[in-house]
Specification:
Its EC number is 7.1.1.-. This is NAD(P)H-quinone oxidoreductase chain 4. InterPro entries: NADH_Q_OxRdtase_chain4, NADH_Q_OxRdtase_chainM/4, NADH_UbQ_OxRdtase, ND/Mrp_TM. Belongs to the complex I subunit 4 family. It holds the Pfam family Proton_antipo_M. With 526 residues, the protein is mainly α. Helices cover 73% and strands 3% of the residues. The protein has 20 helices and 2 strands. Helix 10 runs parallel beside helix 12 and helix 11 packs parallel to helix 16. The longest helix is centred in the middle third of the chain and has 32 residues. The two termini are 46 Å apart.
């Protein structure tokens, strides 16, 4: 327990990346193995730390490490994890390691590419683990740089436009994080950047609302929330398969994590003001993005809008004021991280063979690539929330959690559930129609004659198989994941309910029969 496990997990891939320029390698074959081994070692360290030292019944911070960094500013290197952060740390290690394996064909500037991948590995884990709000802002910003460079160098024809739009949106949103963080730190009699100390401060409802709005803009860009989402389809439209996996699998989850950690966890009174708006924005995300995805003819953009639609369930779950809804929001983040990474990896595999992303130019490729056909089918079924897959459990928990919430009127709940159900209906329509155009039907003779449509290689089957194992495992036995964060989300939901007077009264009334039953129950002496 005295060993700094979290600090080691964060810094190991970053330090290992510094040695890449010293590796004698021209074609990238050595450096890719080096990066993969580093990723595997760090992922194994994450799993060992979770298995050995993480207590599933403890709702608070665990594995806390605090070291003085800049004492004059009261700035510390402070890291720790709870039930909200730990699943996302594991997801980060898992997805990033597979993304390194997915980058196997990269031959353009391989040293720089794998250097950025390993640097991003540590930066992403740091976002979920740091407990100092100014340090959070720094790692949030530093994590953006590798993504920008990967998009700008290894992207498609419009990579410069997509990379510039990405950095303008995300860095612009980060200014709101800095402004809100400094306001919280200097508010009151004490100056502190510690997140737990900031959560205990009394800001007053008016200031909380302004702080909440600032954070909502910043994290709404990353989630992404309509209308702050427009950078995502462009970024996905030009990214390579490894960048796709990191964008869909991890970066979007940073926005959801920060909304729960800071907006809901640190500003519960303002959350009561904004919760109905979050629900409405979630419904807009689901329906608007599903309709837009239905109309897309570009394969990457279709899956990108599908991601935006699925993240709408996270917003509804966060604002549900129920244990089940909040649990569903966290489960949806992990589930979509796995499913989104698998779909975008398959987009990359398909493009490598067909050299086109337009569905009109495809058709019947499943006849030549039977393994790719099978992988596409299973992953698309997972995305449309087929029972037995993780997406079904997550969306069902959000639906039931919100439908049974006593924080909203019956009319509002019925309208929201019915509108969100429209998105659920649209999802299988556009995904199954995509499969039909991509894999079924008559072959495009020009495509077959000019492209070598080889089937999936073992590396690609391994990547998809690795992602499908937790997707199906969580779908069949959700407790595999929910037990990791249940204690934390239950405690968080209870705190949120304490900020709503009507919910406090209902909880007190509900607790009275239980208390009377305990008092009237015969004791062991009787």
């Amino acid at each position: 327990m005295d060993f700094p496990w979290l600090t080691t997990i964060i810094l190991f891939p970053i330090v290992a990346a510094l040695f890449i320029p010293l590796i004698p390698d021209k074609d990238g074959k050595t450096v890719r193995w080096y990066a993969l081994i580093v990723g595997l070692i760090d992922f194994c360290a994450i799993v060992y730390t979770f298995y050995r030292y993480y207590d599933l019944t403890e709702p608070g911070m665990q594995l806390v490490e605090t070291y003085a960094w800049i004492p004059q500013l009261n700035l510390n290197w402070s890291v720790g994890v709870d039930g909200l952060a730990m699943p996302l740390v594991i997801l980060t290690g898992f997805i990033t390691t597979l993304a390194i394996l997915a980058a196997w064909p990269v031959t353009l500037k391989p040293k720089l590419f794998y250097f950025l991948m390993l640097a991003m590995y540590g930066g992403q884990i740091a976002v979920f683990a740091v407990q100092d709000i100014l340090l959070f802002f720094l790692v949030w910003e530093l994590e953006l740089i590798p993504v920008y460079i990967i998009l700008a160098i290894w992207g498609g024809k419009k990579r410069q436009y997509a990379a510039t739009k990405f950095i303008l949106y995300t860095a612009g949103g980060s200014l709101f994080i800095l402004a809100a963080a400094l306001t919280m730190a200097f508010h009151g009699d004490t100056v502190t950047f510690d997140m737990q100390a900031l959560a205990a401060k009394d800001y007053g409802v008016a200031l909380e609302v302004w702080l909440y709005a600032a954070f909502l803009i910043a994290y709404g860009v990353k989630l992404p929330i309509f209308p702050l989402h427009t950078w995502l389809p462009d970024a996905h439209g030009e990214a390579t398969a490894p960048a796709h996996m990191l964008l869909a699998g991890i970066l979007l989850k940073m926005g959801g994590y920060a909304l729960i950690r800071m907006n809901a966890g640190m500003l519960p009174d303002a959350h009561a003001v904004f919760a109905p708006a979050l629900v409405i924005l979630g419904v807009v995300n689901i329906i608007y993005a599903a309709l837009t995805s239905f109309a897309q003819r570009n394969l990457k953009r279709k899956i990108a809008y599908s991601s935006i639609s699925h993240m709408g369930f996270v917003l509804i779950g966060i604002a549900s004021y129920t244990d089940l809804g909040m649990s569903g929001a966290v489960l949806q983040m992990v589930s979509h991280g796995l499913i989104g990474a698998s779909l975008f990896f398959l987009v990359g595999c398909t493009y490598d063979r067909t050299h086109t992303l337009m569905l009109d130019e495809m058709g019947g490729v499943g006849q030549k690539m039977k393994k790719v056909f099978a992988m596409w089918t299973v992953c698309a079924l997972a995305s449309l929330a087929l029972p037995g897959m993780s997406g079904f459990v997550a969306e069902l928990m959000v639906f039931v959690g919100f439908a049974t919430s006593d924080a909203y009127s019956l009319t509002f709940r019925v309208v929201v559930v019915c509108l969100a159900a429209v998105g659920v209906i649209l999802t299988p329509i556009y995904l199954l129609s995509m499969l039909r155009e991509l894999l079924y039907g008559p072959e495009n003779k020009e495509l077959v004659e000019h492209e070598v449509l080889v089937d999936a290689e073992p590396r690609e089957v391994f990547v998809i198989g690795s992602l499908l194992i937790p997707i199906i495992g969580i779908g069949l036995y959700p407790k595999l994941l929910t037990q990791v964060y249940d204690a934390t989300t239950v405690q968080l939901t209870a705190r949120l309910r304490e900020s709503v007077p009507s919910l406090i009264r209902r909880d007190q009334v509900a607790a009275q029969p239980t208390a009377m039953a305990v008092q009237s129950a015969p004791s062991l002496k009787d």
